[in-house]
Amino acid sequence: MFNSALCMNMLAIEQHLATVWVNTYEQKSMKIGVILMVIAILQSVPFGIFVNWYYINKDFDLNSANATCIPIDTHWELALLGFTMCFLTCGLCSLWLVLLHRYNHKRTLNRLKLESLSARYQQTENENTNRSITPSLVGYMMLGLTGLVLSAWRGKYAIDYGVNNEYDKIITDLGYTSVDMYAIYHMFCFMYYNDAMRLAIRRDIHRIVGDFPGSLKIHNAHQIEFNKDADIHTNVYFEQLQDSWK
């Protein structure tokens, strides 16, 4: 869980770098992505290998074991530590993303002051991405809090009734269920808060089920319908492109 939280926190760092280097981000996007990916791998993989080795090498035998080999399933204190780190780190990154979104929203309103058309586009993308990532990261923070409470609850039963008690499996399964619920919530955030993704989904729904109330509008500013000719889309695009240079 902590390694997953680390990857989520990398999104906040990427958004910070995109905000700082908005004028040159397109030239640095690949480099930044590789650097963040390498950092996440170098921190996650060795840490995961060490934790699995430390908790499994003495009390798990592959040939004779009849229980799970996942460390957090057999050691509630490790789950408590992991979820605590998730909650704290994701909480800090969520707060930072909220501040970034406010800053980028104000900056987007004045994007014509930026150096190039590319920078103006990147600034708009920064705000849209902030808006879709922030709720997801806040949700991951709440997932960490849920796991923290469940792990503490599980630890109480382990202390009172021993490690192998009837409540341990139930609480562990509740934790995995909360992870599955977050995965659905994470996808919903990107579909709902990202304008381009939401527009693509509305188009797909229109193709599948046909017309329904509100399905024909694809751009609130110009009120374009799906069943119009492609020339209208082209004209609107070049009008916006021409206006962006003013």
UniProtKB/TrEMBL annotation:
Keywords: Membrane, Transmembrane, Transmembrane helix
InterPro entries: 7TM_GPCR_serpentine_rcpt_Sre, Nematode_rcpt-like_srab
GO cellular component: membrane
Keyword Transmembrane appears in the UniProt entry: yes
Pfam annotation, one family: Sre
Bilayer-crossing regions: 34-56, 76-99, 137-154, 174-193
Family: Belongs to the nematode receptor-like protein sre family.
Entry protein name: G_PROTEIN_RECEP_F1_2 domain-containing protein
Organism the protein comes from: Bursaphelenchus okinawaensis
